[in-house]
Input
Amino acid sequence: MNILISNDDGIFAQGMRTLATTLATAGHQVTVVCPDRERSATGHGLTMHKPIRAELVESVFKAEIQAWSCSGTPADCVKLALGALMATPPDIVVSGINHGANLGNDVVYSGTVSAAMEGVMEGIPSIAVSLTSFTQKSFAPAADFICDLLGDRDGHRFSAGAPLLLNVNVPAVAAAEIKGAKITRQGIRRYFDQFEKRVDPRGKTYYWLAGEAIEAIEDPLPHQGWPTDLKQSLKAIPTDVQAIHEHYISVTPLQYNLTALGDLIDLASGRRSLLPT
Output
């Protein structure tokens, strides 16, 4: 397969290099276009008011991997790769392996997910993949899982119907402790945010966002606008947060259409009033 790899951790990130090397060793044609520095939590931002620069990187990757360092955001990287850097469109876009989870609410802010989403917006199947730890650096299980997922060289798993966007999270445990993989739905991951107030050398105040994830497992269902049978079917599918907690790889299909279907049905049917009466 012809694979485009991007990320938000930057061109020298170990997770991305492990993934690129694993896929190239398996015989895939690999092109890498990544930010020239860490661009985590940039969401789907694009560079509109200044030039985007790209430089070939020749000393970090295997000889058969063509790699570019890009001054833009993760979404910029994929746009630039598809529009200017690659001679032929890739069969699939893979973003990651991210150092840190992209579960639940994280996907809204994630540059990793946004790079993959840019691919699927251009009609190309895409995968975002993350290791759910900021400290562990064992990326091989995640890289091997993606390699196995793409092992069907005819692409049957991704060719039928509309292009898939899969958000894959791999638990940060030894490979032998991973129980398998589960198809999941997006859960809820809340953070305890803290803004640390500091003073710079010129005496001016600034704030540094900190905080940590709250480990409680919450379920976003039910929604009053959804049919009962749909709610029951969804309830039987674990959330991504729950699957990771149980040491399963979570595979969550995502979409960029943000229409709130339950609210739409309620409003259109008159069961819910938009304005006070």
Summary: The CA atoms of residues 243 and 250 lie 6 Å apart. The mean pLDDT is 90. Residues 14-25 form the longest helix (12 residues). The chain is about 25% helix and 25% strand.
